[in-house]
């Protein structure tokens, strides 16, 4: 199990190192919060396409082989960018945006495959949900951010170096998955994608989020996503405004806390009762952070830096908690589709949020609005968790005599 977790983490590490330094690279071409916000929107939107495309495909078996196939495609795409950078270190921003869109399609698809693979290996949906986040790009940020701080210090072409790291990590994960797929007992199922059924599969991946078994947690998760969207452009605005360290290093450092939060908050999910209490506490923290951000506005960037750290932990915990609640309620035969659907709405809400907040920050009036929006979202989350807890207690209290517990 450890080898599988380590291999997936290495693959995610290369991807997120590249992603963290593409923003400073774009700054050298055209420094704009609006462009960064568009990149965030693109990341989420094209990641959404990747997830909906493979949701049904994942549930048809041969998960390891399919994962290896997509990682090989990521490697090929990384090599294309590497050759382009070697020929011309200063590429057009349009080329980077097109390349990032293609890469995000594969990135989103691999997120569904890693979740299904880890869920099958652990035999637990909740552990699969937590492990997939810890070993995902979000969890890998705790290591990637340190590398991203060091690379610009010793290389004049840090983005090229990160693309090399990305290619190497993709190659290592592809090799591991191919060996695992060929060794031992072959998983049942087929690698065939069935392109003719793509439209129906995508509709299924979008619609399955709304099946009755997932209520009310699908609605609660959407509220959470809306409340904490825009974290990338928020970190970028803080990194550019602060004057303590170079902005590229500050931006990468912000993601250290973002990634660390997924590792620190994961153990809090072990006990269901304790997990619910932490959900209440984190919702209260979100309200407090939102109110303070709304009052401060743009006047104190150091306050916003501290708020970002707290919000990173709130964000990580709620991603874990809401994912577990939905995964545990998903029908076994549609587990991959449900995970794809979760990522679809995460990508949609976070992507639009990045663009809206980016445009707001570019006009100078976004910080206070973002703060008050998060305070309102935290209040709704708090009421939602308390309502679900009260409803569960009433159901337990009025179970008829002789009925199953």
What structural keywords apply?
disordered C terminus; 405 residues; mainly alpha; 15 helices; Growth Hormone, Chain: A; 0% strand
Mind explaining what this structure looks like?
- This is MFS transporter.
- Keywords: Membrane, Transmembrane, Transmembrane helix.
- The protein is an all-alpha fold.
- The protein has a single domain (2-179, 203-395), classed as MFS general substrate transporter like domains (Growth Hormone, Chain: A, Up-down Bundle).
- Helices cover 81% and strands 0% of the residues.
- Helix 3 runs antiparallel to helix 7 (158-182).
- The chain is globular, with a radius of gyration of 21 Å.
Q: Which helices and strands occur, and which strands form pairs?
A:
Blueprint: H1 2-29, H2 33-58, H3 63-87, H4 93-122, H5 125-134, H6 137-154, H7 158-182, H8 198-207, H9 217-227, H10 231-241, H11 247-265, H12 272-296, H13 301-329, H14 335-362, H15 366-397
Number of domains: 1
Tell the overall outline.
globular
Question: What percentage of the residues does DSSP assign to strands (E)?
Answer: under 5%
Overall pLDDT confidence: 80
Number of distinct helices: 15
Instruction: Please state the second-level CATH architecture.
Output: Up-down Bundle
For the report, how would you describe the main beta sheet? none
CATH class categorisation? Mainly Alpha
Low-confidence stretches are 394-405
- According to DSSP, the number of beta strands is 0
Q: According to CATH, what is the topology?
A: Growth Hormone, Chain: A
Secondary-structure class: mainly alpha
| Elements, N to C (H/E) | HHHHHHHHHHHHHHH
* Cα separation of the termini: 34 Å
CATH superfamily: MFS general substrate transporter like domains
Rg calculated over all Cα atoms: 21 Å
Query: Helical percent range?
Result: over 70%
């Amino acid at each position: 199990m450890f080898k599988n977790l380590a291999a997936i983490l290495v693959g995610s590490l290369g991807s997120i190192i590249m992603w963290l330094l593409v923003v400073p690279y774009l700054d050298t071409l055209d420094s704009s919060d609006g462009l960064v916000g568009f990149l965030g929107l693109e990341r989420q939107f094209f990641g959404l396409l990747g997830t909906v495309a493979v949701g049904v495909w994942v549930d048809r078996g041969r998960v390891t082989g399919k994962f290896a196939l997509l990682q090989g495609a990521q490697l090929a795409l990384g090599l294309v960018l590497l050759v382009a950078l070697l020929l011309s270190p200063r590429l057009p921003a349009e080329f980077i945006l097109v390349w990032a869109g293609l890469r995000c399609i594969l990135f989103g698809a691999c997120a569904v495959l890693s979740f299904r693979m880890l869920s099958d290996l652990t035999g637990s949906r909740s552990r699969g949900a937590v492990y997939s986040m810890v070993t995902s790009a979000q969890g890998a940020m705790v290591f990637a951010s340190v590398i991203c701080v060091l690379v610009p210090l010793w290389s004049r072409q840090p983005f090229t170096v990160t693309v090399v790291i990305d290619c190497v990590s993709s190659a290592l994960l592809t090799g591991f998955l191919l060996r695992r797929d060929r060794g031992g007992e072959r998983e049942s199922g087929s690698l065939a994608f069935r392109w003719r059924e793509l439209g129906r599969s995508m509709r299924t991946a979008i619609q399955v989020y709304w099946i009755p078994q997932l209520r009310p947690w699908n609605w609660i998760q959407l509220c959470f996503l809306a409340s904490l969207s825009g974290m990338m452009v928020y970190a970028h605005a803080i990194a550019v405004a602060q004057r303590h360290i170079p902005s590229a290093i500050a931006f990468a450092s912000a993601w250290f806390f973002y990634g660390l939060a997924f590792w620190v908050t994961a153990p809090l999910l072990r006990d269901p009762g304790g997990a619910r209490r932490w959900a209440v506490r984190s919702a209260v923290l979100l309200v407090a952070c939102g109110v303070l951000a709304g009052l401060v506005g743009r006047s104190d960037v150091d306050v916003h830096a501290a708020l970002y750290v707290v919000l990173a932990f709130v964000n990580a915990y709620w991603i874990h908690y809401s994912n577990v609640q939905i995964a545990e309620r998903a029908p076994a035969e549609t587990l991959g589709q449900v995970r794809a659907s979760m990522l679809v709405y995460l990508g949609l809400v976070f992507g639009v949020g990045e663009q809206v907040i980016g445009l707001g920050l570019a006009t100078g009036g976004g910080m206070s609005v973002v703060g008050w929006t998060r305070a309102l979202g935290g209040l709704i989350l708090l009421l939602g968790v308390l309502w679900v807890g009260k409803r569960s207690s009433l159901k337990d209290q009025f179970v008829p005599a002789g009925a199953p517990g």
